């Protein structure tokens, strides 16, 4: 049954990351992070935020973890504040909420489009009877899925809101993917993780999932393999050609 999907036969469930795997919103997140971080970096005499910074320190992680991880890489430590700190606040949470406010504006301005190849692949998975969940660190997942008209395919959603409510560890810890498998009533061994973030494929490997597909949108195929991907594709439609 799974030959046409490029997956091992024992796989019964698919756990898809959202931004960069199903939709092109990763680029919108990267732009919002840059707009948010650059003034902070300038204030501390640091060079601007780069794509490599996004890939290595922010992509796939819960928002506040991404702020801490990236700023720490530049030797900058901001104070902690309550999760609902105002976007104007000069704290980890303030910077994170500033970014979230900006990305919502960008999404509203530009809209959300699913990758055509990802849409084809999700439709094929559904037709083959595989269970489908979205596992993402984004707190805006419902809005993005609705805008991309993907909601009808998704049986379970483990997103930034759920991660915070359940106090799950963010990627590269496997907790969110394990919650996704549990929500679908399957074991990690019978589930496949689809990820474009290095932290995400790390999470798939750490959770001992049956298969980990790395999606290389930014030219980091070797890094995805090194972090735990069993196979790397540039587009999910490539798996339909097997």
Automatic annotation (TrEMBL):
<keyword id="KW-0597">Phosphoprotein</keyword>
<comment type="similarity">
    <text>Belongs to the HAD-like hydrolase superfamily. CbbY/CbbZ/Gph/YieH family.</text>
</comment>
<keyword id="KW-0460">Magnesium</keyword>
<dbReference type="GO" id="GO:0016787">
    <property type="term" value="F:hydrolase activity"/>
</dbReference>
<keyword id="KW-0479">Metal-binding</keyword>
<dbReference type="InterPro" id="IPR006439">
    <property type="entry name" value="HAD-SF_hydro_IA"/>
</dbReference>
<feature type="region of interest" description="Disordered">
    <location>
        <begin position="76"/>
        <end position="98"/>
    </location>
</feature>
<dbReference type="GO" id="GO:0046872">
    <property type="term" value="F:metal ion binding"/>
</dbReference>
<dbReference type="InterPro" id="IPR010976">
    <property type="entry name" value="B-phosphoglucomutase_hydrolase"/>
</dbReference>
<keyword id="KW-0119">Carbohydrate metabolism</keyword>
<protein>
    <recommendedName>
        <fullName>Beta-phosphoglucomutase</fullName>
        <ecNumber>5.4.2.6</ecNumber>
    </recommendedName>
</protein>
<dbReference type="InterPro" id="IPR036412">
    <property type="entry name" value="HAD-like_sf"/>
</dbReference>
<dbReference type="Pfam" id="PF00702">
    <property type="entry name" value="Hydrolase"/>
</dbReference>
<dbReference type="InterPro" id="IPR023198">
    <property type="entry name" value="PGP-like_dom2"/>
</dbReference>
<dbReference type="InterPro" id="IPR051600">
    <property type="entry name" value="Beta-PGM-like"/>
</dbReference>
<keyword id="KW-0413">Isomerase</keyword>
<keyword id="KW-0378">Hydrolase</keyword>
<dbReference type="GO" id="GO:0008801">
    <property type="term" value="F:beta-phosphoglucomutase activity"/>
</dbReference>
<dbReference type="InterPro" id="IPR023214">
    <property type="entry name" value="HAD_sf"/>
</dbReference>
């Amino acid at each position: 049954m799974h030959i046409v999907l490029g997956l091992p036969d024992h796989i019964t469930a698919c756990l898809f990351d959202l931004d960069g795997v199903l939709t092109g919103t990763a680029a919108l997140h990267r732009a919002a992070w840059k707009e948010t971080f650059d003034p902070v970096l300038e204030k501390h005499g640091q060079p601007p935020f780069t794509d490599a910074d996004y890939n290595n320190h922010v992509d796939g992680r819960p928002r506040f973890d991404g702020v801490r991880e990236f700023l720490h890489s530049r030797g900058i430590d901001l104070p902690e504040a309550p999760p609902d700190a105002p976007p104007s606040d000069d704290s980890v949470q303030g910077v994170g909420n500033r970014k979230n406010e900006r990305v919502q504006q960008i999404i509203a301005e530009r809209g959300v489009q699913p990758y055509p190849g990802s849409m084809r692949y999700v439709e094929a998975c559904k037709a083959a009877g595989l269970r489908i969940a979205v596992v993402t660190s984004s707190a805006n997942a419902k809005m993005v899925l609705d805008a991309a008209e993907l909601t009808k395919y998704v049986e379970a959603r483990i997103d930034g809101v759920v991660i915070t409510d359940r106090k799950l560890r963010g990627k590269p810890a496997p907790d969110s993917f394990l919650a996704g498998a549990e929500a679908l009533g399957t074991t990690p061994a019978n589930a496949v993780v689809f990820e474009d973030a290095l932290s995400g494929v790390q999470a798939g490997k750490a959770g001992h999932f049956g298969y980990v597909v790395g999606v290389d949108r930014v030219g980091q195929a070797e890094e995805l393999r090194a972090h735990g991907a069993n196979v790397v594709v540039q587009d999910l439609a490539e798996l339909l050609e097997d």
